[in-house]
TrEMBL record:
This is Response regulator receiver modulated diguanylate cyclase/phosphodiesterase with PAS/PAC sensor(S). One of its GO terms (molecular function) is cyclic-guanylate-specific phosphodiesterase activity. Residues 141-187, 263-318 form the PAS domain. Gene3D superfamilies: 3.30.70.270, 3.40.50.2300, EAL domain, PAS domain. Residues 212-266, 337-389 form the PAC domain. It catalyses: 3',3'-c-di-GMP + H2O = 5'-phosphoguanylyl(3'->5')guanosine + H(+). InterPro entries: Biofilm_reg_signaling (IPR052155), CheY-like_superfamily (IPR011006), EAL_dom (IPR001633), EAL_sf (IPR035919), GGDEF_dom (IPR000160), Nucleotide_cyclase (IPR029787), PAC (IPR001610), PAS (IPR000014). Residues 421-554 form the GGDEF domain. SMART domains: EAL, GGDEF, PAC, PAS, REC. Residues 563-816 form the EAL domain.
Amino acid sequence: MPNTQNHTTPLRILLIEDAEDDAQLLVDHLESEGLVFDWRRIDTERDIIVKLQESWDIIISDFSMPHLNGTRALETVRRLDPDVPFIFVSGTIGEDTAVKAMRSGAHDYIMKNNLNRLLPTIQRELRDAQARREGRHAEQILRKLSLVVKQATDSVFITDSKGRIEYVNPAFETLTGYTADEINGKTPAILRSGKHDVAFYQQLWRTINCGDIFKGTLINRHKNGELFHEEKVITPLKDAQGHITHFVSTGRDITARVYVEHANARLISILEATPDLVAIFEQDGRIRYLNRAGRQLLGLDFEEEVSTRHVQDLVHNDTAQQHISQALLAVREYGIWNGETVLRVAEGKRLPVSQVMLAHRNADGTIEYLSTIMRDISERKHFEAELQHQTNHDRLTDLPNRFFLVDRFTSALEYAKRHGEYVAVLFLDMDNFKRVNDNLGHAAGDSLLQQVAQRLKGCFRSNDTVARHGGDEFTIVANDIKNSEDVLRLLQKLRTAFERPIFIGSQNIYITFSIGIALYPHDGDQIEDLLHHADIAMFWAKSSGPNQYRFYASEMNARSHELLKLEEDLRLALDREEFLLYYQPQLDLRSNRIIGMEGLIRWQHPVRGLVSPADFVPLLENSGMIIPVGEWVLRQACRAHRTIREAGFDNFHVSINVSAAQFSDEYLFDKIKRTLQDEQMPQQALELEITENILIKDPISATETLRAIHGLGARIAIDDFGTGYSSLAYLKRFPLNVLKIDRTFVSDLIDDPSDAAIAEASVSLAHKLDLEVIAEGVETIQQLEFMRTHECDMVQGYYISKPLPWLELMKFLQRR
Ligand SMILES: Nc1nc2c(ncn2[C@@H]2O[C@H](COP(=O)(O)O[C@H]3[C@@H](O)[C@H](n4cnc5c(=O)[nH]c(N)nc54)O[C@@H]3COP(=O)(O)O)[C@@H](O)[C@H]2O)c(=O)[nH]1
């Protein structure tokens, strides 16, 4: 017979039976019915307690036992296992007892003499026990589920198949504002917002009525009228036959997310529309997003291009890049940075911008990204610069005003202190301004001041400052002043600039100034002191009459006054033919003949008498007048030589001095060539004396000029040899003919062995270089004999003759 049980393992049956035979009888019967099972027999309450530690599929118990009564056994079993099927099999149990036993938890009772009913009863009880277990399990799950639903943050409601709400969870109540009591029995249509059309709901119902799951976003309306967005899933529930019995709706409130998305979209459209540059970038500066204004400014069209850029690429130069690096550090540290920088925009142009940089942090405080907004401040900058200019400059003349002057003055003093130079402060007061203003009116006065300002500016270098002090007063701060002569040159420049009149209306107005001068550090090292002293000096100048200047330090006044006057006179000297050329004879020690002469300039001043070249040649050189005057000397010397030639003197030369300023005259060569031709001068009869400085200052151009002159046939002598820094070896590089030993070595050579040694060595070395040697300043016979002994070729000096005027020279030559 087949085993009727469902177990794959044998059933486990516990027999509570005192009679072993009866137990065996029962076992035999069940086995004969085909039941496969394990079994145990027990007959005490203690055994029950022990055995029920194990699991049993069914318990079959006798009712009347000597040591245990059936009711007691049932109670003990039920206490330990409420579910296990319990069947009484007894020969003695009466109807009443059996009913009572059933009420106490027995599942059935069977008479021992009617065991046929036992197997079906066992099978039925096993099934029922299984069902009970499953039911209880289902109940537990349901309880858990309902707890989950109750505590869920998603809103849940359940309707019947007609859509009438049967259950809502607390989240639903919160989301919709309706309580379970208010809404149970109603349909979800109560939540409709009017934002979806009829077709939308028809589609929803069609889906779920077909047994499919609906997923979608619904806009519903809260009890208070506000809209909310729900991400919804509606699942139909079916019974065993597949009929829909319920619908379960779960919904997630996504209103905030929808708003954020809307807000983001809105934000992006705002960022794209703003004229400010907005960038979002990584901590290291790589750009994630650059708005339209930014892309246009930088000429970047594509997102890929933007993403390869660095925020530092946006800015103009190294300084701005450093700025941004510091900003990145600051924003990481403090979360915000405010500043200004300069953007590099199209065509390498600069755009000043104000900038705010922000750090955006994650919930844990780490930085997620950085953002910056930059605003074009070029107009403001322009305005600021304009304002700054207006603050610093005089409205009428546009010259720096006195406040800005102090600024520039401070820098000038700092520079001069560092470089050991002078700074000159000139205080200028126009002599005749009041008259112009009174006679021609204020407009003319203003125009005059403007033109004067322009002319003053033209006299000075850009690092000097010409400022309007107020009214008709101007202050000038001049840098790079090496000595008082430099100041005089400035004064001369000023005078020259105002030699021309200023044209106002229909009038020519000549302008003169009273000028006070103070020198740093001579007259003070504080700005206020220097300005005050220049002012005082101006007052002294003014009180001496118009067109005067005064140094604050009186000793400078005398010297500078003299120099300036001398310079003024010098300008007229050439036209007035006040220059003379003296000649100093030169003796050839080999032949004992006068073989040449040096032309030396003199100035016959109408008042001062004969002025030494030492006093005016430097002025000629500084003013550039040496060029026309030097040309005069050349012509004069060549003419004199012509007369000497014509008087029968052969093999005679004339030397003249050529200064550095003449050497930079690009026409020097042409002038020499032309003069030689004009005076039909044998070229080798002309000797040009140059100093070492000319060679050292610009050796390349000096070589070129010397070669050209040498090429003409003229001789070149190196003058003042030994006073400069050159050596004979150095001189070898130049085309020279004569070396002139300076008179400082000659004057002491009798008493000073080192001078004697220098003179001796100079002669010997010069000869080795094929140069002739002439010693100048020979005043005694001893000096002359020294030179003769040491084979010097020629001598020049008072011992032979002082420099002589032309006629006296001729007499001298004839005498010799
Ligand atoms: N560029 C030009 N420079 C010129 C010119 N004429 C002269 N000078 C230079 O001026 C400096 C002074 O010249 P000067 O006062 O004429 O002095 C010369 C001689 O008088 C003087 N000398 C001559 N012999 C003696 C002497 O025995 N004792 C003594 N104490 N002085 C003497 O030496 C001067 C000659 O110098 P040098 O030119 O070096 O031969 C002077 O530097 C001239 O160069 C000119 O036309 N252009």
